[in-house]
Design a protein that fits this description.
Strand order of the largest sheet: 2-1-5-4-3-6-7
CATH superfamily: Glutaredoxin
Number of strands: 7
CATH architecture: 3-Layer(aba) Sandwich
Largest sheet: 7 strands, mixed
Oligomer: single chain
Number of domains: 1
Order of helices and strands: HEEEHEHEHEEH
CATH topology: Glutaredoxin
Number of helices: 5
Distance between the termini: 14 Å
Strand content: 15-25%
Structural class: alpha/beta
Shape: globular
Length: 165
């Protein structure tokens, strides 16, 4: 339970999921995300099921031109490296139609991102999550249910994976 709490430190980047309004789609919190298949910027296919052995999966919707996503790219890479040995996985998804595979590759290299960066043509996966902007981050537990922070994102993530102490 500890990794999910720690990884949820990313959710301040996410849209305020708790806010309900007539203009806003239903919150994805509590929603189970079904398997999806997308190609990365190198052409390899990846699917959510690839990380079925992971305690938590962080899904970050990123854009190559987004100033906030640019500022946060390296931090995502650091968090991915920190939590991989503890059972966490990271995947980036780009649903922006204007971002080319080459630009996504440049973003990965310039931010030293080693986790997959996938292209979501037609926003189909973004729509499943209810993603509306970049960067927007979702943390999925082992059952692929979307979570939000309870106390702090860091504490919830740490509770999910378990401490390394």
């Amino acid at each position: 339970m500890r990794i999910l709490g720690s990884l949820l430190v990313l959710l301040p980047l996410a849209a305020p999921l708790a806010a309900d309004s007539a203009d806003r789609p239903a919150s994805p919190v509590g929603r189970t995300i079904e398997n999806f298949k997308l190609h990365d910027h190198l052409g390899a296919e990846h699917e959510l099921a690839e990380w079925s052995d992971r305690k938590a999966v962080v899904v970050a919707f990123l854009g190559t031109e987004c100033p906030l996503a640019s500022l946060y790219g390296r931090r995502l890479a650091e968090l991915a490296a920190e939590y991989a040995p503890r059972g966490g996985a990271f995947v980036g998804i780009n649903s922006n139609r204007q971002d080319s595979l080459e630009e996504i590759g440049h973003y990965a290299r310039s931010h030293e991102i080693e986790f997959p960066l996938l292209k979501d043509p037609g926003n189909k996966v973004a729509d499943r999550f209810g993603a509306e902007r970049t960067p927007e981050v979702f943390v999925l537990d082992a059952n692929r249910v979307v979570h939000v922070p309870l106390k702090s994102e860091l504490e919830l993530c740490a509770d999910t994976i378990g401490s390394t102490d």
